[in-house]
Automatic annotation (TrEMBL):
The lineage of its organism: Bacteria, Bacillati, Actinomycetota, Actinomycetes, Streptosporangiales. Pfam families: Acetyltransf_3. It comes from Nonomuraea maheshkhaliensis. SUPFAM superfamilies: Acyl-CoA N-acyltransferases (Nat). It comes from the Bacteria. Residues 12-170 form the N-acetyltransferase domain. This is N-acetyltransferase domain-containing protein.
Length: 190
């Protein structure tokens, strides 16, 4: 999974974040609008989280999304000591809509399943109105498993629905998609 990927004539790499990259991380998180993320990032809080190991420790690994030599975003892998890892993906506005989300999700799926043989599934969540990310999930073999009504508060006040997707290791290996059994409730109520 290491190396250079080419998507639409763009070379993409995923180097691991280092605490020496603190200034670049602060610039990325504070210098962009992140319309589908729940909180506004402040420099002091970011630096404290870097010092606390939140971006790189036993439970988290962060990787830059480098496109044609430019830091186009990042992906933070979370819950690595749990049974089901999750992730936070951020792509700079100038690079959105160019296939980097799909490339990154394919990369991180392979990375997690190859580096962590005990993982059976990977989860991700997004806001209901983030149609681009929802399409990326489906394109990469992830299946919608949950829909939480009014569960994602936005910094500017409204509360959105949260939608959860996941991929199973067996589906990743086989290239198939296994859908949840949505009709498993009994038809009569006792």
């Amino acid at each position: 999974m290491v190396g250079v990927w080419t998507i639409r004539s763009v070379n993409v790499e995923f180097p691991r974040f280092s605490p020496d990259d603190a200034d670049a991380l602060v610039e990325l998180l504070t210098g962009e609008e992140w319309p589908f993320h729940a909180s506004v990032q402040e420099e002091t809080a970011i630096r404290r989280r870097i010092a606390d190991g939140v971006y790189d420790d036993a439970d988290n690994r962060t990787f830059w999304l480098v496109a044609d030599g430019e830091r186009a975003g990042l992906v933070r892998l979370q819950d690595l000591t749990d049974w089901t890892p999750m992730f936070d993906l951020r792509i700079r506005a100038a690079w959105r809509g160019r296939g980097l989300g799909t490339a990154t999700l394919k990369w991180l799926t392979g990375y997690l399943f190859e580096q962590f043989p005990a993982f059976n599934r990977i989860e991700g969540n997004t806001r209901q109105d983030n149609l681009a990310m929802r399409a990326v999930f489906r394109r990469c073999g992830y299946v919608k498993e949950s829909h939480y009504r009014e569960a994602w508060p936005a910094p500017d006040g409204p509360v959105y629905d949260s939608v959860g997707y996941a991929i199973l290791r067996r589906d990743w290996i086989s290239g198939t998609t296994t859908l949840p059994d949505w009709d498993d409730e009994p038809t009569s109520v006792a």
